[in-house]
């Protein structure tokens, strides 16, 4: 996860990211100040009653307004994406730091630091339907459309750097296995069921991506706090036609952070839109998500220098072998105006490439290059989906493609063919800035056979496992156990445990013990012992409290510190909220009203990053009697969150902590232990030391070393 997070240079005003927004203006419709009309622009004076014969009689066919309104309603839905149906999008821009890629690619948006390129990004889950919950255990899509001055470029990636299969022909099988089982349509957006595990335990190539799926990477805290990867090896092409292999990486400025599984499951009920809301609110509040683009470059001459095949999308190039070079930064700074028009109708396509970027023969990528164009026909029912505002290029589009459902352009001229003389030969073939396919010599037999270089399946899963910290391993073992315990067929559990025996014997045994099967009988594959530290979230970025949500629990009689605390934390970029048993305000111990942001029982600790209980004996006594409030604190303790306590609040937090961290309840000291910060003496004002210590704990994201098994929440 190497990053530099430089600042980007002043862009050339002509190349601004606002270009796409200006063009969208033509399609925007603002109902402010308008009158209600039919689709033909005829004003109507009544839209609540149909045209009937008499007050209680039948509706007339001539009620064109009612018929039009209902007809349109009947056709409001389009098919959801067959995968990645659930998603959230935002606009922004990308800009390179410098021209360091200029010698490798003619793609200006990557190599010219004066160019700021507008982007639209859609984040998604994969398996669930459009209305499914956000925080399921799943891969996240990370798809970026760059509206470059050389045409649209789509980088359609995921938050895992590897995929489950290495040939696209298996994709329908894989997706059928992970989707709800066909006879019952159960379970929704879950990998924890027989068919998925039956499939992957019979496809050893899936085991590496499955290891990622069982890790905390599959439950990101936020779309703003996850990495993105192009996954495939692509090719950069320079002015001299030279190719260079490239892997793309997005790294979030806020670090890569995850939820805890118990918490993720609870959020599915408390706030199914958790990640969507987080993205939306962050952008509305001006906390713009930022990601650094990095590249791993491999000269063509080194194609065969690795112990895996560069064309195999189930493999990473370890960062320690080929460092990730920072290239530029993407900032997401604008929410869409309309979810359907923009986030739903955006159409990504891996074959949307621009001069300077080309494909490789990765068989997964080759299949995608067919699928993404094809799937849009199903979603839009027309080949004209590139006319939709969100999909339109900012460059001129001119060709001889004509007609089709929903043609939005009025093509002039009488010669829609090439070559012609009747239109002056236009559209003409340009002699510069054109896309030229990378010239690669290919020859061979026509065969259905995967290269032996793709046929080593487990060593990188072992690399991932070896690179994990103790707590990351605990989470992985717990995830395998959870998932396999949901499988009804014991032989499916056994099949998967046998696979694990090729990754790490101790892992296989630990999982077997938790899922009621006998430990693997076969000879284990010896663990090679190698690690790649960049894979562990221990080595991500920590320290920032920007946009972290903090619940401050108060009731009547609260010490004056509550409001002061909110101000001090807000000044550091965190998002504190005051929660009380009822909404409105509470009466402070200093006899002043303290406004409250939300009622405790309309929220839950799982949607916050941290909880603080200020003192005030009346306030703490009320909260202590409120089972919901006590549970709120205990749950935050359980999920290893930063928890703060001041004055009498230390008593309540000590009770909730149930011995999992030391909480001071007497004296004047500020004490931090395993992410729990207590300041029993702080009643009149908030000690700076408390704020410092609490923010340090919050900036560490979670105190994973806190042992919370005994905490009942
Ligand atoms: Fe996709 N994938 N995919 N995929 N994929 C789609 O395209 C497909 C794969 C990814 O926000 C679909 O427009 C095949 C890898 C993202 O709109 C569809 C194969 C990676 C998105 C499709 C793959 C992805 C999609 C569904 C195996 C990571 C959401 C709707 C050859 C590098 C894009 C659509 C958005 C969406 C097919 C494998 C990422 C059906 C056949 C590998 C982020 O075309």
TrEMBL record:
Cofactor(s) listed in the protein's UniProt record: heme
Cross-link 3'-histidyl-3-tyrosine (His-Tyr) placement: 349-372
Similarity field: Belongs to the catalase family. HPII subfamily.
Positions annotated as active site in the UniProt record: 84, 158
EC number, as in UniProt: 1.11.1.6
Record-level Gene Ontology MF annotations: catalase activity; heme binding; metal ion binding
GO cellular component term, pick one: cytosol
Function: Decomposes hydrogen peroxide into water and oxygen; serves to protect cells from the toxic effects of hydrogen peroxide.
Entry keywords, A to Z: Heme, Hydrogen peroxide, Iron, Metal-binding, Oxidoreductase, Peroxidase
Coiled coil residues, start to end: none
Disordered, as annotated region: 1-51
Listed Basic and acidic residues bias regions: 17-31
Binding site for heme: 81, 122, 171, 368, 372, 379
Enzyme class (EC, first level): oxidoreductase
Reaction it catalyzes: 2 H2O2 = O2 + 2 H2O
Protein name per Swiss-Prot or TrEMBL: Catalase
UniProt cross-references to Pfam families, sorted A to Z: Catalase, Catalase-rel, Catalase_C
Residue ranges of domain Catalase core in the record: 37-426
Polar residues bias locations: 32-41
CDD domains for this protein: GATase1_catalase
Keyword Iron: yes
An individual GO BP term: hydrogen peroxide catabolic process
